[in-house]
Amino acid sequence: MSTVDWSALRVSLGLAGLTCLVLIPIGILLGRHLAISTYRGRGFVEAAIALPLVLPPTVLGYYLLVAMGGESLLGQFYEGLVGRQLVFTFDGLLVASVLVNLPFAVQPLQRAFEAIHPSIREAAWCSGLSPWATLWRIELPLVRPGLVSATALTFVHTLGEFGVVLMIGGNIPGETQTVSIAIYDRVQAFDDGGATSMAALLLAISFVSVGLIYGLTGRGKRRHG
Which of 5, 92, 122, 138 is the right S-S partner for 182, CB 3.0 to 4.6 Å? Predict the structure, then answer.
């Protein structure tokens, strides 16, 4: 009987961790900007961020494949820089994962920043804090629940992503084959035991990850309550 594909699990965990590492700072800055700024066209910016939530993964994956392929400016720049193509590599997978998970990082943080009353920022500025110090010392502690939600959603969604991962990364064992793709391969090969084991492991990791993060958040709330 087949066992768990540990190399696929390593790729999935590495991809999820790096996606969070890259995307959460972007989510903080972009979410705060959208929360406190009013300008014409802001709705279109929010719509662009939300597109991965409504587009079919195959459509999104196709456009990313075109944008990152060997004929694109990005693909040619990357190939000239490192000597290999961007698509069907872990690096390309990471770029696609960051773009696909953008709404999961930005939207919870935007809502959290919107919940901060403007008078709090104004009081911090009047006290002599710079905008950066206000963000670091005042706002980030207040948006901690949104930060936790963004991290949890980004991590877990990356673990389970299938369509875009398959189109951009292909199915290269040890480099771009994630757990979700490995499960699909097991099903195609009628390996029910292997598919069941890996699906159960992915379910357990996702459940424990979200449970630990929200548990830590709840403990922090009780401590400061």
Answer: 5
Calpha distance 185→172 (Å, rounded): 12
Task: State residue 1's pLDDT score.
Answer: 41
**Of 4, 36, 202, 2, the residue nearest 131 (C-alpha):** 36
User: Do 184 and 162 contact (CB within 8 A), yes or no?
Assistant: yes
pTM above 0.90, yes or no: no
The backbone region for 52, taken as left when phi is positive above 0, alpha when psi lies in -120 to 50, beta otherwise, is alpha
Please tell me whether residue 81 adopts helix, strand or coil conformation: helix
DSSP of 162-225? -HHHHHHH---TTTT--HHHHHHHHHHTT-HHHHHHHHHHHHHHHHHHHHHHHHHHHHHHHHH-
Query: What per-residue confidence (pLDDT) applies to 133?
Result: 86
For tokens 């190939």, what's the residue? 79
Contact between 192 and 88 under an 8 Å Cβ cutoff? The reply is: no
Task: Cite the DSSP H helix spans in 69-178.
Answer: 73-82, 90-100, 102-114, 118-126, 131-134, 140-142, 144-160, 163-169
Model pLDDT, residue 99:
94
Q: Which residues of 181-202 are buried (b: 16+ CB within 10 A; e: fewer)?
A: bbbbbbeeeebeebbebbbebb
Query: How large is the average pLDDT for residues 23-36?
Result: 94
Which domains, from first to last, does the chain contain? 6-224 (1.10.3720.10)
